[in-house]
Specification:
This protein is an alpha+beta fold. It is 52% helix and 6% strand. The protein contains 10 helices and 4 strands, in the order ααββααββαααααα. It has helices spanning 13-25, 35-38, 59-67, 71-86, 106-119, 122-125, 140-158, 185-208, 220-237, 247-271, and strands spanning 44-46, 54-57, 90-94, 100-104. A 4-stranded antiparallel β-sheet has the order 1-2-4-3. The protein is globular and about 60 Å long. The two termini are 32 Å apart.
């Protein structure tokens, strides 16, 4: 089954980092004939962190056994190469055990959010809705959340507060200190949830193309409910209308609503096979 991608190739953050890890592993290819066979699927997982987006990999432990080297020595070599390749957009740290951690900068997250919004047009997401369940009893909250996002965006346009269909600039996501405008923890939690789901979407797409080696089944119903709950918490803390907040913060919040709407719509239509109503 050939599936569509929500965002262009090489936009999922975990995929971008995985590519650079594979490139870094090439220096060890001569030490093990079975290197690429044994590292066909690099385990790179997103770290649970309420404040920042980061990933970790234990690839150095596997490689150390294949190359008869200490894990810390391998990890430091990979970490140094990654730091060079990824530049100032990612920060690489190697702990004493040999675990490699990669922290994603706020500047990169801002650019990533821009990419998510600007490259995902409604035309790309539209599919034939004939035969789709318009209201699903088990996923009504997800459909309602999508409709709520659409309603908020229409209201923002009507009040001339936003133009959600236009590409934005990363400066709208960042404050004067080049940090994501997060005045509430629920804002960073929503961004983190969006990053995680796009990572899963790309994993699923790779599997459908017989590219990926992971056989892990993704529970889309559970994940979309998780996104809905995260957005609900965000909206409870981060109102826009009737509050005294800066225009930049208001625009940033509308952008997050738009990003959430895009991901919800894609999941409902393409992975769960039910309609994504714009009003209820």
């Amino acid at each position: 089954m050939h599936k569509k991608l929500l965002v262009p190739k090489y936009t999922a953050i975990r995929q971008l980092i995985s590519i650079q890890i594979r490139i870094s592993l090439n220096v060890y290819a001569g030490k093990s004939k079975n290197l690429h066979m044994n590292l066909a699927h690099i385990h790179l997982h997103k770290v649970r962190n309420k404040g920042k987006i980061s990933y970790a990999t234990s690839v150095a432990f596997i490689l150390s056994k294949l190359c008869n080297m200490r894990a810390t020595e391998v990890a430091e070599g990979i970490g140094e190469n990654l730091s060079t390749k990824l530049g100032g957009q990612f920060f690489v740290n190697v702990n004493p055990s040999g675990l490699i951690k990669i922290l994603v900068s706020d500047q990169f997250i801002a650019n990533w959010l821009d990419s998510l919004i600007s490259s995902s047009s409604e035309n790309d997401l539209t599919i034939d809705s004939a035969g789709l369940a318009y209201y699903s009893p088990t996923l009504f909250t997800a459909q309602y959340c999508h409709a709520r996002c659409c309603s908020l965006l229409r209201l923002g346009e009507r009040e001339r507060l936003i133009r959600p269909c236009r590409a934005t600039q990363s400066s709208l996501w960042l404050d004067e200190d080049e940090k994501i405008r997060c005045d509430h923890q629920t804002t960073s939690c929503l961004i983190s949830e969006l990053v995680q789901i796009v990572d899963w979407l790309y994993d699923d797409w790779e599997s459908s193309q017989d590219i990926g080696k992971s056989n892990r089944k993704i529970n889309w119903e559970k994940n979309i409910v998780g996104l809905v709950n995260t957005f609900t918490a965000f909206w409870a803390d981060c109102r826009i209308l009737g509050t005294t907040i800066s225009p930049e913060l208001a625009q940033m919040r509308f952008n997050l609503i738009f990003a959430t709407k895009l991901v919800l719509e894609f999941l409902l239509l393409n992975h769960l096979g039910i309609a994504a109503p714009k009003s209820i």
